[in-house]
Amino acid sequence: MRLVLGFDGGGTKTSCVLMDQNQVILAQSRSGPSNPLRVGIGQSLAAIQDAARQAATSASIGISQIKALCAGLAGVGEADVCEKMRRLLAESFPQAVVHVTTDLQIVLSAASFATESGDGPIAVLLAGTGSAAIGRGKDGQILRVGGRGPLNGDEGSAYDVGRRALLAADNIPTEGHSGLGEKILTELGVASWADAQELSRSKPEEVYARLFPVVASAADSGDETAQDILKAAANDLAALTVTLIERLSLKGQEFSLVKSGGMMNRSHFFDAEIDQRLRLAAPKASITLLSMPPAEAAARTALQLLQTSEAEEN
């Protein structure tokens, strides 16, 4: 039996799917972050290897039985980084066909598989630790907007929401914290805003994304500060989507618009805000939530690559 692996790796975790030739999922696993730009190429490789070992052990198979793998990773947009990761994975899995691509491309593949859009027009809004929009026009052209990382943008992302929440803390009284303020301090395990700010300066990527669930919960409970933060995030994410739609010449057209990422389906308030803006931006689009895990799409892609490789050999 031919077995393949699919990986979806980002700044907080790496998800893995082990699949057989009939697209049956045999095992799933999770390990640490694998964005090489954030954790380094060595740690990225180690996280992927760890996830692969977990999946193989769960299915009682040997790593040598893996015939192909596809890794969709954040941080491999630059050709040299992507090729280095591919080469290292080829060394780690010498018996397998290896393909490395961006996490955004794998999300687009997942949306295409799930909506059965084939090569037709589609757009995906990704709202997680980072933010981006990627899509395919009627002519097959693939474009992305955003996804530049927290230092260069990622407007509307969980990272950005956390950053806004701590900035808003300056306007919350030290005594008698609001519901949002008290929850932020509790989540970070600190006693004062000074401590919270210091922690965010030393570990920004770890701290900011952690605060999105806190802000989401507070917004659903009616906290106006939290709601204002999420409204701003929804505006920024909608702007990314509008830019993508315009560049793909999909404005006013019928197409699939898929929402994905860890910020989705976490807050009734935020979901309503983003849905309202997306409907205005794309009134004829079919708006859905991503139903296929990107790691599963990566495994399906690996299977396709294996079939192509075998056909070429024959």
CATH superfamily of the domain at 3-107 and 293-313: ATPase, nucleotide binding domain
| Highest CATH level, the class of the domain at 3-107 and 293-313 | Alpha Beta
Q: Characterize the main sheet.
A: 5 strands, mixed
* Total DSSP helices: 12
Beta-strand residue fraction: 15-25%
Measured between the Cα atoms of the first and last residue, the distance is 18 Å
In helices, the fraction of residues equals 40-55%
Q: What is the radius of gyration computed over CA atoms, rounded to a whole number of angstroms? A: 20 Å
Question: Can you put this structure into words, describing what you see?
Answer:
With 314 residues, the protein is of the alpha/beta class. The protein has a domain at 3-107 and 293-313: ATPase, nucleotide binding domain (Nucleotidyltransferase, domain 5). The chain is built from 12 helices and 10 strands. The strands form 2 sheets. It has a 5-stranded mixed sheet. The chain has a 5-stranded mixed sheet with strand order 8-7-6-9-10, sandwiched between helices. A hairpin with a 4-residue loop joins β1 (3-9) and β2. α5 crosses α8. The mean pLDDT is 91.
List keywords for this structure.
314 residues, 12 helices, alpha/beta, globular, 5-stranded mixed β-sheet
Task: Write the topology of this structure.
Elements: E1 3-9, E2 14-20, E3 25-31, H1 36-39, H2 41-59, E4 66-73, H3 79-92, E5 97-102, H4 103-115, E6 122-127, E7 131-136, E8 142-146, H5 158-168, H6 179-188, H7 193-202, H8 204-210, H9 212-220, H10 224-247, E9 256-260, H11 268-281, E10 286-289, H12 294-313
Parallel strand pairs: 1-4, 4-5, 6-9, 9-10
Antiparallel strand pairs: 1-2, 2-3, 6-7, 7-8
Helix pairs in contact: 4-12, 5-8, 5-10, 6-9, 7-8, 9-10, 10-11
